[in-house]
Design brief:
With about 110 residues, this protein is mostly beta strands. The chain has one helix and ten strands.
Length: about 110
């Protein structure tokens, strides 16, 4: 008999408490959570870069404007999530970017 056809119970541990359960196929194929990477700024929505306000080597402070991203006729001010030094700028004015595109990298 094929193992995929069997209902095999597995152990799931939540807050140090084990639970016997059956995992669905969807659960097995899920994408694992990845925390935010503090060394990059990603496009959180697809859009067009209207202005780039920093260049490689610039020192930026938390909240400082890095670039302007236009999405759905709204201009979004993309700001620095922390104090850092810009390592690379991957966008230029007029460039279309998809959601999740790396726009700015910081030095670690």
């Amino acid at each position: 008999m094929d193992d995929s056809k069997l209902n095999l119970k597995e152990t799931l541990v939540v807050d140090d408490t084990p639970y016997e359960t059956l995992f669905t196929r969807k659960f097995r194929r899920r994408k694992f959570f990845r925390g935010a990477d503090p060394t990059v700024v990603l496009a959180y929505i697809p859009g067009v870069v209207r202005a780039v306000l920093v260049k490689a080597g610039d020192r930026v402070n938390w909240g400082q404007s890095l670039l302007v991203l236009e999405a759905m006729k709204m201009q979004n001010d993309i700001t620095a999530p922390r104090d850092a030094v810009v390592r690379l700028v991957h966008v230029r004015p007029g460039q279309m970017v998809p959601k999740g595109f790396v726009m700015v990298e910081f030095q670690p």
